[in-house]
Amino acid sequence: MNLFFILILNLGFAAPEVPPAKKNQLEELFIWKLSDELKLGPAEEKKFSELVRQLNQKKLKDSQKIEQVTKEFQTAKTDKDKEAVFKNLKKAYQEYNQLSVLELDEMKKLLGPQRLSTYLNVKQDLTAKVKSLLIQKTEDKDNRKDLPPPKVIEENKSE
Prior knowledge:
The structure is a single chain. By secondary structure, the chain is mainly α. The chain has one domain (2-132). It is 81% helix and 0% strand. It has four helices and no strands. The chain has helices at residues 2-11, 20-38, 42-75, 79-143. The longest helix has 65 residues, at 79-143.
């Protein structure tokens, strides 16, 4: 289980800088873990994995859109331009946030209310553990002391 959390910590689903192959590995591990916890049959697991992949793809596209529009907002020169870009930024955030509602609706259709509850609990637990690992990793990085420079030892070679 620790390997799972380390992979989540190091790879991330929607981070654009992560190579697609590593994202796919993480996504497959996430699907496997939740499928196991939910005790999905083969047909359900196929639908579940397709849904997770679709949602992650939408999250990636929407987060990239937010990043792009944020850059436009920062570079807009006039207040009028900033106001126009702000409307686009607000719309991009609304679309991204709507994905959580879509996820709930689609998972409820697929899993039913009882297993949806399990899905949400497991996902929340994973998120909390990842956050604690992130905090711990950051604290470890902050508390790490740099090593002193190496000492040069010269030998006297007497003949």
